[in-house]
Amino acid sequence: MCEGIITLSSSRVTVVETSPIDKCRYCLVGFPDVGLVSSIALGHAILQAQMTEVGHLESDEFPPVIVVHDGVPKPPLRLYHKNDVVFVVSEMPIDSNLITPIVRSLVDWAESKNVELLITTSGIAVPNRLEIEVPEVYGVASSAAGRKVMEDAGIKALEEGFIAGLHAALMKESLKKKVPSLILLAQSHLKYPDPGAAASLINALNRLVGFDVDTKELLVHEGEVRLRLRALMQRTQENMQQVKKGQEQEIPLLYS
Asked: Which of 72, 79, 84, 117 would be 55's cystine partner, CB 3.0–4.6 Å?
C-alpha cells in the first residue's frame, strides 16, 4: 500500500482514500440512471461547493476506462469531501453485475466511518414530466430517524412504488448492516437528461445536509447540459433496462 493511501476492500471492489476522511456525517451516492438526475445534481454541487477529490473505487472487474479533466486522467468512480459530507459519483454507467459488489463495499465503508445517513440520489420517471414546472422530490428512509430528517427538510415520503437497481440494492444492504439510509427521488424524464429535476434535487440536499448550492446557472444552461450528456444517457439506458428501471412507473399489487 502506498503511504497516505487508505483502502477498504470487499472481495471484488475496493474503496481507496487518497486523502484520509476523518469526518463523514452524510455520504451521498450519485450514479447515472433515470434522467441522469443524480449525475447532474452531484456534479454541479461538487463544482459549486468546491469539494475536494479524496478517493476512488477500483476493481479488476471495472471496464478499462479513465476520464480526463483539465488534462489529468482520473478513475470514473470517485469520492469528494467537504466538511462532514462525502459524495460518491460515477462518470460511467454501472453494469448490473457490478451493483452488488459496489454496494457492499460502499455500505461497509460507510459503516467503518460511522456515517449517520447514507443517501442515494436519483430520478423517478413520471409520464407528465413536461407539464411539471418544478419537479417534486420524494424520499424513502430505512428508519424512523431518517423519516424525521426528511420531514424536517420538507421532503415528502414516497408512499407506494417500486425502486430498482443500485438504490434498492444499497438500501437492502444498509438494512442488513443497520446503516441508516435514505433514497431521494426527483420527478424526472426517463430517457432524457433532466437538469430541472437535478435542480430540485440540489435544493432538497441544501435543506437536508446544510449545503448552499445555487442552481440558477444549471437552469440557465439547461439546453447545453442536455446536449452534452446525450451520449451518456444513451449508454445509461441500456443499463437501466437490465435492472428494470421502467418498473418504477408501476404501482405495487399489494398495499399495506
From this structure: 79
- C-beta of residue 241 within 8 angstroms of C-beta of residue 163: no
Angle, helices 166-177 vs 96-112, to 10°: value is: 40
Asked if the structure places residue 1 within a domain, the reply is no
Answer yes or no: is 254 within a domain: no
Separation between Cα atoms, residue 30 and residue 43, nearest integer Å: 9
Q: 55-78 burial by CB neighbour count: b if 16+ within 10 A, else e?
A: bbbebeebeeeeeeeeeeeebbbb
Assess if residue 117 is contained within a domain. yes
Q: How far apart are CA 39 and CA 171, in angstroms?
A: 19
**Under 8 Å between Cβ of 141 and 182:** yes
Written as nine digits, the cell of 23 is 469526518
| Tens-digit pLDDT profile for residues 174-211 | 999 999 999 999 999 988 889 999 999 999 999 999 99
Domain hosting residue 38, numbered range:
12-124+133-247
Helix axes 37-48, 195-209, angle to 10 degrees: 60
- Asked whether residue 148 is assigned to any structural domain, the reply reads yes
- The reported pTM is 0.87
pLDDT tens for residues 3-57? Answer: 457 677 667 999 999 999 988 999 999 999 898 999 999 999 999 999 999 999 9
CA–CA dist 99, 74 (Å, integer): 21
Q: Where are the beta strands (DSSP E) in 85-161?
A: 85-90, 117-125, 137-141, 156-157
CATH code of 216's domain = 3.40.50.10900
Residues 6+ apart with CB under 8 A from 209: 25, 26, 28, 85, 119
Counting the structural domains of the chain, the total is: 1
